[in-house]
Amino acid sequence: MKDQSHSPTLLIVEDSDEYFEVLSRIIMDISDRPLSIHRCIDGDDALDYLNHEGIYHTTGEHSNPDLVLLDLNLPGTDGREVLVTIDASKHLKTIPIVVLTTSSNPKDIQTCYESGVNSYLLKPMKIDELRYLIRVLLDYWFKVAILPTTSKVEGREY
């Protein structure tokens, strides 16, 4: 069993307020340890958060998330573009990315895996199915998988 002393950070990139509320409530209900959840509502916001730019520019420590749940169909810069940008960035490409979307388009699936996504999941429409999916996802990523550690870039923790 993995050491669970670290409190993981989860970045959820989701434009739907309703879906985010349901998702975050389920995560908090089933998580057996403290978990920090941050939400970005579109791709531009997510890239600013990950690159510590815009409103996320700080002089203090700001760690990257341990896991990103990314919707594909976002306003502005969509999830596909976010994946390409993350994959091209040396300090971001080791962050595990799970796409959680309604798109079952084979082209989207192929493109996402080619862009470095770690997993591609379809959003369940039933609450009990979503609860099961999130439980399995959290157990795998935060109890079983060994995640990369943060690294320092330009004096800031990433």
From TrEMBL:
Q: Enumerate the spans annotated as Response regulatory domain.
A: 9-138
**Pfam families, per database record:** Response_reg
Coiled-coil-forming residues are none
Gene Ontology annotations of biological process type: phosphorelay signal transduction system
The GO molecular function terms of this record are: DNA binding
Q: Which residues carry this modification: 4-aspartylphosphate?
A: D71
Q: Which UniProt keywords apply?
A: DNA-binding, Phosphoprotein
InterPro entries given in the database record: CheY-like_superfamily, Sig_transdc_resp-reg_receiver, TCS_response_regulator
Quick check: keyword Cell wall biogenesis/degradation in the entry? Answer: no
Keyword Phosphoprotein listed: yes
Q: What is this protein called?
A: Response regulator with CheY-like receiver domain and winged-helix DNA-binding domain
Please name the source species. Chamaesiphon minutus (strain ATCC 27169 / PCC 6605)
Read off the lineage from the record: Bacteria, Bacillati, Cyanobacteriota, Cyanophyceae, Gomontiellales
